[in-house]
DNA sequence: CGCCGACTTGAGCAATCTCAATCATGGTGG
DNA sequence: CCACCATGATTGAGATTGCTCAAGTCGGCG
């Protein structure tokens, strides 16, 4: 168990009053996981709200026949469980650490009590849910109407700061996981990377070099949604 | 403008106190749309929370090049916008009536005020968001790992009450829309229906006859999630 | 130095899409 | 009452995309 990180840095708590923040701190605890470790399983009693402090958490659905589908990957500051709506619920996905990861765990009962006292917290939780929904909707749009190459371009552009032009960076996780995230096989991902060489994308194993983000964006303008504003709502 | 429907019948308001329900009633109004009519557009100011009273509402994303992707279809009792988290947000999908449809429209500002006063409402909104997320997650799982035929089977089984064995019913909307919902073309849907004849599914235009729901369920057991319980949470 | 895991590449195959033709069906106007 | 049309649905043929299986490469690490 490590020291608590500054709660203010979580979007979920950014606007919460100091007193409420203090109440949140009590009973919350930081936990560490190493690569591949399970944080919770689909079907487990949803006894806590869990946030990513540092690292990546992969959310997946497991079918009765045992195969796993990556549904989302959460990173620093995001909630992986969402806020609790009642005690007695269960998680409907499994969560697994990708690389060394630390999380913040808040008992569901306490979170619920705090929301009852502090509508601000409930509304912040609602806002977090809204962001999750927007992300999932984008994912569905992408799966339904974009090719593997288009989805990869979208993924890479999301890693390029909007102003940056040339850009070199390291992929956040390995290509196997990126493939699962995009809903294609490793081989298809590799070929998609190869085809993107024509638009100025080079890769060296895990490092990516984008020759011109603007060019990439232009090439795939139909694919890149409006940069998700902080104020989107509804849906 | 029609008379207000009983608000209690919306999951969102089921557990709300009578007084709060009264406050909700003021300023809310029922609106009617005919087939194909637009309810709001992606990018519009999210000035209201809108629920489906009766009918179907198709939610879609429109790309810069103009093509539309169906993201979800909402029916009786569901919220199509989600609860507001702030004034000034915008809708990130468009909404369009499928067949004659009536909606309930509640100004965002009023809804926000009510949530601030009534944490119960905020938590109910959170629960609604959680259901939406669960639905979208199921959709993503389906798109990523099931074939067109499997997705269709899943769709049909969702229309069969769990106890029913033989079952005859009318599709909720036309096959073009079902195809869009499942993320395939009309032609692929038609062929998927044809292949399901082997497992005892007949169709006559818009009527479906399921010879044995149990058999269908058995055949596609990997595809049919646990019947979504009222208590699921997290993710 | 050689193994191992991650990645890449190739070849053939399966699923789905596109384009096009055909077919039913319900409504309309003569 | 019937011919005609518009719409939705089905079916076929060929092109494409992505998958599977298999082999080969590359880089790091014991």
Q: How would you briefly describe this protein structure?
A:
The structure is a homodimer of 235-residue chains. Chain A is globular, with a radius of gyration of 19 Å.
Could you characterize the architecture of this molecule?
The structure is a homodimer of 235-residue chains. Chain A has 235 residues and is α+β, with helices and mostly antiparallel strands. Chain A folds into two domains: 7-143, Sandwich (Jelly Rolls), CATH 2.60.120; 147-229, Winged helix-like DNA-binding domain superfamily/Winged helix DNA-binding domain (Arc Repressor Mutant, subunit A, Orthogonal Bundle), CATH 1.10.10.10. Helix content of chain A is 35%, strand content 26%. Chain A has helices at 18-25, 108-117, 119-145, 148-158, 175-182, 186-196, 213-219; strands at residues 29-33, 38-40, 48-62, 68-75, 90-91, 94-107, 167-170, 201-204, 207-210, 232-233. The longest helix of chain A is centred in the middle third of the chain and has 27 residues, at 119-145. Chain A is globular and about 55 Å long. In chain A, 41% of the residues are buried. Mean pLDDT of chain A is 92; it is low at 227-232. The interface between A and B is large, with 63 and 65 residues. Chain B binds a DNA duplex (30 and 30 nucleotides) through helix 6.
